[in-house]
């Protein structure tokens, strides 16, 4: 006899391996805000034996809850996530700028790479945490990295133009942190962004936003998993 979530009902005695579809069902129910007892009743209503349903749901509920707890954002995780975001912005921006300078063109796909880099560094340095605050950090970092890359490419061209106009002695020591260079860059920035750029920026933002995305589940107050299982 088949159970409604995959596998045979006779297999339910193996509590370490609940039917595969049950995991997704419990996950969906938890995202919808259902508690464990409500999920058990729902599973029983779908045709599973009440004892086996309680046992199987308990396993999946614990596994998902443990993942939620591991991904919960802490104040310390925010600090390390910010560090990851800054590293992604600086490193990704530098790569964008150097490639643009040497190839004399801006490759939009690099923006997407900055988005992935920001997302992964934020999650990695925060210890695997995920949530809305880390999504914001990663996405803003990706946009900052793209801005840094475009500025480096602009500054190189700007400095070369000044050297041609006023000579190396006058323009050779111009710093990237020059207030005038920054002002001119931001004045010209709207004209430097094409629809093609916008497409890649949106893709980069989406990549950075999706990687630190959590499950979106709120556990009952004070919930502590009684077991630690592999997930």
- State the major sheet: none
User: What's the order of the H and E elements?
Assistant: HHHHHHHHH
The radius of gyration is 26 Å
Kindly report how far apart the N and C termini lie.
28 Å
Counted by DSSP, the helix tally is: 9
Residue-averaged pLDDT: 83
Provide an overview of this structure.
The protein is mainly α. Helices cover 69% and strands 0% of the residues. The protein has helices spanning 20-31, 36-45, 50-71, 75-103, 108-125, 132-166, 168-171, 179-192, 195-210. Residues 7-17 and 227-231 have low confidence and may be disordered.
Can you lay out the helices and strands and say which pair or pack?
Blueprint: H1 20-31, H2 36-45, H3 50-71, H4 75-103, H5 108-125, H6 132-166, H7 168-171, H8 179-192, H9 195-210
Helix pairs in contact: 1-3, 2-3, 4-5, 4-6, 5-6, 5-9, 6-9
